Amino acid sequence: MDKTVKAKDELVHLSFMKVTAMVLVVFSHSTGFLDTPNMFWIEYHPEAPWNIMVYLTHTFVIWLVPSFIFVSGFLVARSQEFHHYTVFEQITSRGKRLLVPWFCTMLFWLIPIALIFDIPMYGRPAGSGILETYKAGFLGKCSFQLWYLLCLFWATLFWAFGIWLIKRFRYWEIPGFALAFAGMFCINNYCKDITFWNFWESGQYILLMYLGIVIYKHRKKIDAFFYKRRILSFVLFGGCFGLTFLESAVPWEYKAFISAVFVFLFYGASLNIVGIWNTFFTNNKIFSFLNDNILLYYLLHSPTNFVVFYLLVNKMHLNKYAFFITEFVVVFIATTVFVLVFRLLGGEVRKKLRIAR
C-alpha cells in the first residue's frame, strides 16, 4: 500500500500537466469561435475581430496536445520498465486503449451530433450526408478532437519498434533522437498525402513522445535540476509562454522543436508548482476527479461546444468577453454532466456483465 501511494505521489506533477492541458483544451475549443479566421469554419463576429484569440490558439497548439504526448511517452517508458512488454504486446495494449475510444466516440457521439446540427468539420463540409460523413469518420478525415488519439497511436507504433531497435546501443538516447528526427522529417516531407487516420500529422509527435521516454530515464537528475532552480523554472516557462504570443517569433515549420522546449519547461514548472502545493493536489477531490476522467473530458467536450453555441450562446447576442466566459463555463459544466452520466451507465453495464458471468 505504501509503495502504491508513493508511486502516485511521484506522478502528481504529471497529473497537474494533464489536468491543466485538458482544461485549457476545453477553453480553447470553447472560445475558438472568436478566432480570425475562425477555426470552426463558422462566421461569428459579435464585434471587431479579437486577435488575441488567434495568438491563444497558436500558443495552445504548441503547448497542450504536445503535453499529452510527452506525458504518454513518460508513462509508456515507466510501464515498460516494470512489465517488459514485447513489441506485439505494446501495440495491442496501446491500440485497444487508443483506437477503441476513438472508434466508439466517433461512431456514437461525434458524427451523430455533427449530422443533427450539420456541423462543418475538416473533411466534412456542411450539408454532407450520413454515408459521406461516416466514411470520412472511419478514414479519420473528420475526427475533430479525436485526431490526437490517432496521432498518439502512430507515435506509439513507431516507438514500439523504435525502442526495440535503439536499445541495442549502450547509450541509446542519441540514436533515439536521430531516429525521431528521421521519422519526423520523412512524415512531414513525404507523407503529406497520407491522410488515413491523420498519419500526415503524426511526425512531430514522434519527437515529443520520445522526449517523454528520455525524460523518464533521466528523471532523477532532471527533477533535481529543476528543484534547485525553482524561480528560474517559472521564469523560463513564463518567457516561453509569452514568446509564443509573438506569432512571428515562432515559425510554424519549427513547431515541433518549440513544442519540445515548451513542454520540457512546463514539466519543470509543474514539478515546482506541485512541490509547493503538494498537499492541495494530493487531497483535493475536484483535482482528483478531473485527473481520473481526463480522457472522458477530452472525448466528450466536443462537439458539446457546438451544441452549446447553436442552442444557447449564439442566440444571446453577447459581446466577446461575455461570450467566451459563458461558452466556456456552460461547455465545461455540460461536459461534466456527460462524464458523470457516462460513468454511471458504464458502472451499470459492468455490473450486468459481472452478473451474466
Summed up:
The chain has 357 residues and is an all-alpha fold. Helix content is 75%, strand content 0%.
Secondary-structure blueprint:
Blueprint: H1 2-10, H2 12-31, H3 51-83, H4 87-117, H5 130-138, H6 147-166, H7 173-190, H8 203-217, H9 219-228, H10 230-244, H11 255-276, H12 278-283, H13 285-292, H14 294-300, H15 304-311, H16 320-356
Helix pairs in contact: 2-3, 2-11, 2-16, 3-8, 3-11, 4-5, 4-6, 6-7, 6-8, 7-8, 8-11, 9-11, 10-11, 15-16
Unreliable stretches covering 5 or more consecutive residues? 1-7
* Main sheet properties: none
Q: What sequence of helices (H) and strands (E) makes up the elements?
A: HHHHHHHHHHHHHHHH
Average pLDDT over all residues: 85
Assign the structural class, choosing from mainly alpha, mainly beta, alpha/beta, alpha+beta, or little secondary structure.
mainly alpha
